[in-house]
UniProtKB/TrEMBL annotation:
Predominant place of localization: membrane
A Pfam family the protein falls into: MatE
Coiled coil start-end: none
Gene Ontology cellular component terms for the protein in this record: plasma membrane
Compartment list: Cell membrane
Official protein name in the record: MATE efflux family protein
Topology in the lipid bilayer: Multi-pass membrane protein
Transmembrane residue ranges: 21-38, 50-74, 95-117, 137-158, 170-189, 201-220, 251-272, 292-315, 327-350, 362-384, 391-411
UniProt cross-references to InterPro entries, sorted A to Z: DinF-like, MATE_fam, MdtK-like
Family, per entry: Belongs to the multi antimicrobial extrusion (MATE) (TC 2.A.66.1) family.
GO molecular function: antiporter activity; xenobiotic transmembrane transporter activity
Superkingdom of origin: Bacteria
Keywords tagged on the record: Cell membrane, Membrane, Transmembrane, Transmembrane helix, Transport
Length: 454
């Protein structure tokens, strides 16, 4: 009987447990890019120039979340290990410290962003008109930066304690209200003509206010401790913040490689004119949306792997890794088939501009073909992030960007390859990451037991 229980604890988790964590995480991950897709469709009705401005500004604002994902993923990894070790209050405490850090960093981002926005938009946007449109959107949207980071921290600690339902409710509430407001603020209603491109930025900030307040209220309600545990402290503790920053350093460097790729891609696409950068914006936002959709399974992996290692279950963590790899591959394959089938319908939802639609197919078929690769890569990223194996992910992602993506897109600028060169670079980037995470997962060296990773 004892042997049977041990084997169960060391074996894979039930599929329903993965689904319990992944399915509520899916709307959370998809909500922001889905909102951006709605935003893209609404702004696209204004013409190619506002859409190009949104493309440049959107990539710039994405730095806020992309560079600081350790507030979410790093917090999940640390909180999940503590939760697996039976220390819920300490796990929630990681969320408190991440929230303090989010507020501090968010205010810095807001202040610095207002100063550098014109220069960065000019560097990325190429033409003065595109840059001006991007700055007009970005100056408003930056007021939501601290709120976005608070939301990242909230998602992190809640996933760590295996609660993905409340984040789903919070994010859907904020983004749903904002999606309803966006068309009105952009195009107006009745006799009012609306605010145009700036109206979408106002709607964006409105969503972030609602969601951040809900996460802060949830954190304040965690005042009472679990039985036998210490109370949750709401004060900042520099020791814990420094520990989070240590893990965050590796995740920030990893994120920098992503953003170097995507910023460079947008900058190169802008050099080929407004239709090219607008078409790139449409496919890139679909890529972002689908990447985060596939990442729902990886969120479950982070929580389950972290908890298993926190409880000393190395065998279970490895079994979960195998499960997640299979699930990610199958889901990615199905998504690739779906997007290939939707080619004749979906681009027209975002714009009716004939010049933009003529360029979309160049990137579309790369996007559809990469879905199975992305499904496996994102799944195994979740396994390694849940184990706190951030240093390995940092190094291999930087190498994949330096060897695969960046050379190809700059060559595409030099030789006039356009979106075909940009998306070939993205394909090389993803294949490099696939090789790296597959080798690491099979090695088993990431599976280190303990409430805190050494």
């Amino acid at each position: 009987m004892t042997s049977s229980r041990t084997n169960a604890a060391e074996g894979p988790v039930p599929a329903r447990e993965v689904a319990r964590l992944a399915l509520p995480a899916l709307p959370v991950l998809a909500a922001e890019p889905l909102y951006v897709l709605v935003d893209t469709a609404v702004v696209g009705r204004l013409g190619a120039l506002p859409l190009a401005g949104l493309a440049v500004a959107g990539v710039m604002f994405a730095q806020v979340t992309s560079q600081l994902t350790f507030l979410s993923y790093g917090t999940t990894a640390r909180a999940a290990r503590l939760h697996g070790a039976g220390r819920r209050s300490a796990a929630v405490g990681e969320g408190v410290q991440a929230t303090w850090l989010a507020l501090a960093v968010g205010l810095v981002v807001l202040a610095v962003g207002q100063v550098v926005a014109p220069w960065v938009a000019g560097a990325l946007g190429g033409s003065g008109e595109i840059a001006d449109a991007a700055v007009s959107w970005l100056r408003i949207a930056l007021f939501g930066a601290p709120l976005v980071l608070v939301t990242l921290a909230g998602n992190g600690w809640m996933r760590g304690v295996h609660d993905t339902v409340r984040p789903m409710r919070y994010v859907l509430a904020g983004n749903g209200l904002s999606a309803l407001a966006c068309p009105v603020l952009v195009h107006g209603i009745g006799g009012w003509d609306g605010w145009g491109l700036e109206g979408s930025a106002v709607a964006n900030v409105g969503a972030q206010v609602v969601v951040a307040v809900l996460f802060l209220v949830a954190l304040l309600r965690e005042r009472s401790a679990a039985p036998g545990d210490d109370p949750v402290s709401l004060r900042p503790h520099l020791r814990l913040i420094r520990a989070q920053l240590g893990l965050g350093r590796d995740l920030v460097l990893r994120s920098l490689s992503f953003q170097a790729c995507f910023l460079s891609a947008t900058a190169v696409a802008a050099r080929f004119g407004a239709p090219s950068v607008a078409a790139h914006q449409i496919v890139l936002q679909l890529w972002t949306f689908q990447s985060l959709t596939l990442d729902a399974v990886a969120i479950a992996a982070q929580a389950l792997v972290g908890s298993a290692l926190g409880a000393g279950g190395v065998g279970r963590a490895r079994a979960v890794a195998g499960q997640i790899a299979r699930y990610g591959t199958v889901i990615g394959l199905l998504c690739g088939i779906a997007f290939a089938a939707l080619y004749f319908v979906l681009p027209g939802v975002f714009t009716q501009d004939a010049a933009v639609l003529a360029v979309v197919p160049v990137a579309w078929w790369f996007f559809a073909a990469l879905q199975p690769v992305g499904g496996l890569v994102f799944a195994l990223d979740g396994v390694l992030l849940g184990a706190g194996d951030a240093a390995y992910l940092r190094t291999t992602t930087l190498l994949s960007a330096a060897v695969g993506f960046l050379p190809m897109i700059w060559l595409s600028l030099a030789f006039g390859w356009g979106l075909a060169g940009i998306w070939t670079g993205l394909s090389l980037f993803m294949l490099g990451r696939l090789a790296a995470v597959t080798l690491r997962t099979r090695s088993g060296r990431w599976a280190v037991a303990g409430a805190v990773r050494p």
